[in-house]
Amino acid sequence: MRDSLPGELRSRLTDVVMCVTFVTVGELFRGAVHARWGARRVATLTDWLTRMTTIPGEAAVARRWGEITGRALAAGRPLPANDAWIAACCLTHVVPLATLNRRDYDRIEALRLVG
User: What totals of helices (H) and strands (E) does the chain contain, helices first?
Assistant: First the structure.
């Protein structure tokens, strides 16, 4: 999967331990089901995920999600739920977020972005 990233982002991730959030795992499998992937492609995805650290949805992450979404609502700029969950995972575990969609996350205070 890292090989399919644009060169600039790929070079920034060369020597890092990559993680995925529990939300990202769900989004990947939703996409696989929606696209009607066959067993071989799903197995490849599953194998790739077994080599990743998955950041779980836990109470501390849920609290951070509530803070993020509450601030966004108070500012009149609600966030998509999954984006807020992903940000909450990263903030709780003090890891940067590698994304090709910086615009989705720029307004989340203290979130470090790579990409």
Answer: 6, 4
Planar angle of CA 26, 8, 41, nearest 5 degrees:
35
Q: Is 34 helix (H, G, I), strand (E, B) or coil?
A: helix
Q: Where are the chain's structural domains?
A: 2-114
Grouping H, G, I as helix, E, B as strand and the rest as coil, residue 53 is strand
Backbone angles phi, psi at 24, to 5 degrees: -60, -40
Domain 2-114 classification at class level:
alpha beta
Where on the phi/psi map is residue 53: left (φ > 0), alpha (ψ -120 to 50), or beta? beta
| Structure token digits, residue 103 | 């615009």
pLDDT, one tens digit per residue, over 18-34 is: 899 999 999 999 999 99
Confidence (pTM): 0.85
